[in-house]
Design brief:
Layout: H1 2-20, H2 24-45, H3 54-80, H4 91-115, E1 134-139, E2 150-159, H5 165-178, E3 182-183, E4 189-192, E5 201-208, E6 213-220
Antiparallel strand pairs: 1-2, 2-6, 3-4, 4-5, 5-6
Helix pairs in contact: 1-2, 1-3, 1-4, 2-3, 3-4
Length: 224
């Protein structure tokens, strides 16, 4: 059921535009833009690419798609004049209502991200950007059985240049500091998991090994 609703959320602007399009050139151009916009939430969901602005992309998608449909409709109106009446059927009015409802769903998604601040979450692998010469040897993957107050993800990072664990840890700490990680509680580093809407905080701890660095990412349900 969730999969069906997700595809409806993504494809609704295209369906509305299919009902509104009147010219071939504008119709295909607007449809191409809508497809490009739709790739963003789908790609983020399927992890084709990553972004800290996931929340903004998912909640802002209906607004952006609605504006594209509006511009396409106005362009066709300017080229061909007002839409001819079709009795009691008014595609433009129906599409306007659907697009407005679609945008409302986007606002609800943004609100849910605000509420999620107090829920544990599984950190993402791409939150740790590695410097040259370091690679992830082991990744525990997303935590699907979170503890009472946090989800965890464990990484083992090794050097491809023969660096010791201590040297690799120093290089990694320098990269994390450059990426905006700041000191947190205890001996941890912290940074914002998302961008504007997603205010959850990811914690990171490092442990040096003889030839590797053990990294633990934690997604707590709240942050002091």
């Amino acid at each position: 059921m969730g999969l069906v609703l997700g595809w409806c959320y993504v494809l609704l602007p295209l369906a509305c535009w299919a009902a509104l399009a009147r010219t071939r050139a504008t119709g295909l151009t607007v449809a191409a833009v809508l497809v490009a916009l739709a790739v963003i939430p789908v790609g983020l969901e399927r992890e084709w690419f990553h972004s800290r602005a996931t929340a903004e992309s998912q909640s802002g998608y209906p607004l952006a798609a609605g504006l594209v449909v509006l511009l396409g409709t106005l362009t066709e109106r300017r080229r061909r004049g007002p839409r001819p009446a079709r009795g009691s059927v008014q595609p433009a009015a129906g599409a306007t209502i659907v697009i407005a409802a679609h945008s409302l769903v986007g606002l609800v998604i943004g609100l849910l991200y605000q509420l999620a601040v107090h829920e544990p979450f599984s950190p993402e692998r791409h939150e740790v950007s590695l410097p040259r010469g370091l690679v992830v040897e082991h990744d525990s993957g997303p935590d699907h059985s979170c503890g009472l107050h946090a989800c965890r993800r464990d990484l083992v990072i090794v050097s491809t240049e023969g660096l010791s664990g201590a040297e690799a840890a120093r290089r990694l700490r320098a990269r994390l500091a450059a990426d905006g990680w700041t000191p947190g509680p205890g001996d941890t580093l912290v940074h914002r998991h998302g961008w504007l809407l997603d205010k959850r905080i990811t914690q990171l701890s490092l442990a040096e090994r003889p030839a590797a660095v053990a990294v633990r990412l934690t997604g707590p349900d709240r942050f002091p």
